[in-house]
Amino acid sequence: MDTFKQISGRIAPMLEPNIDTDVIMPKQFLKGIDRQGLDKGVFFDRRFMAGGQPNPDFILNMPGWQERDIPAGWPQFWLWIES
User: Fold this and answer.
1) What separation in angstroms does the CA of 2 have from each of 5, 9, 79?
2) Is residue 81 part of a domain?
3) In the structure, what pLDDT confidence band is assigned to residue 13 with cuts at 50, 70 and 90?
4) How many domains are there within the chain?
5) Residue 74 above 50 pLDDT?
6) Where is the signal peptide (predicted)?
7) Rounded distance, CA 36 to CA 55, Å?
8) CA dihedral 30, 43, 48, 60 (to 10 degrees)
9) What residues pair up with 72 in beta bridges, in sequence order?
10) How far is Cα 55 from Cα 58, in angstroms, rounded to an integer?
11) Is residue 6 part of a domain?
């Protein structure tokens, strides 16, 4: 068993239970066999509105959260995203 590693950084709260994997990574970004472009797909439907404009109501688009290290949800969702 691997040892636990301490992680430190800023955490962005996403207070929504049971976030579906299709919300985390929409299917249109999962067509390739490599990992290129996956960073553009994370929470795409939440991050952007119709027409591609950033959604100002989404936590990771709000001032102060663009430089977060770890978006995290409660009570059932924890996700580390590196870009």
Assistant:
1) 9, 21, 19
2) no
3) confident
4) 1
5) no
6) none
7) 24
8) -150
9) 13, 78
10) 6
11) no
